[in-house]
């Protein structure tokens, strides 16, 4: 191996459960595999505040939650077609005490808003590597 190559461990990609789509592999701060990400097909039928979105996703089961800001970027890259492109979606990442990040899937924009604002949300399941 020289300076232009790297050894990468073989990863087995788990099959999505019924009602899920595989979004990809998340890396940690050191660039090492952290967890697999799955987008759940289920979504609420209304917009909600940031806290309501977090509670809705948490109630779906263990290991499930609203995607982080960085997970939302992966969803944008790999599963953009699974979102309403005219809507803003909450992430679980707070910007400050009363603000949190949102993802707009049409252009890939991320911006923060007051957590009392109502936006759409989706849920993801994380499976550690």
Provide an overview of this structure.
The protein has helices spanning 50-58, 69-79; strands at 20-27, 33-40, 64-65, 88-96, 99-104, 109-114, 124-128. The longest helix is centred in the middle third of the chain and has 11 residues, at 69-79. The radius of gyration is 16 Å and the shape is globular. The protein has a domain at 44-123. By secondary structure, the chain is α+β, with helices and mostly antiparallel strands. It has a four-stranded antiparallel sheet. It has a three-stranded antiparallel sheet with strand order 4-5-6.
From the spread of the alpha carbons, the general shape counts as globular
**What is the total tally of β strands?**
7
Beta-strand share of residues: 25-35%
| Average pLDDT taken over every residue | 94
Count every helix, treating DSSP H or I runs of 4 or more residues as helices. 2
Helix content: 10-25%
In N-to-C order, the SSE pattern is EEHEHEEEE
Question: Residue ranges: pLDDT <50 for 5 or more in a row?
Answer: none
Rg result: 16 Å
Largest β sheet strand count, sense and barrel closure: 4 strands, antiparallel
N- and C-termini, Cα separation: 25 Å
* Biggest sheet: strand arrangement: 1-2-7-3
Structural category? alpha+beta
Brief descriptors of the model:
three-stranded antiparallel sheet, alpha+beta, globular
Question: How do you describe this structure in short?
Answer:
With 129 residues, this protein is of the alpha+beta class. The protein contains 2 helices and 7 strands; from the N terminus they run ββαβαββββ. The chain has a domain at 44-123.
């Amino acid at each position: 191996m020289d300076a232009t190559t790297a050894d990468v461990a073989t990863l087995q990609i788990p099959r999505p459960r019924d009602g899920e789509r595989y979004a990809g592999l998340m890396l940690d701060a050191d660039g090492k595999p952290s967890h697999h990400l799955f987008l759940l097909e289920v979504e609420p039928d209304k917009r909600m505040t940031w806290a309501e979105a977090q509670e809705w996703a948490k109630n779906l089961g263990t290991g499930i939650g609203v995607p982080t800001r960085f997970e939302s970027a992966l969803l944008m890259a790999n599963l953009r077609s699974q979102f309403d492109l005219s809507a803003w979606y909450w992430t679980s990442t707070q910007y400050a005490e009363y603000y949190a990040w949102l993802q707009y899937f049409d252009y890939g924009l991320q911006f923060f808003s007051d957590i009392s604002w109502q936006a759409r949300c989706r849920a993801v399941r994380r499976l550690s590597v």
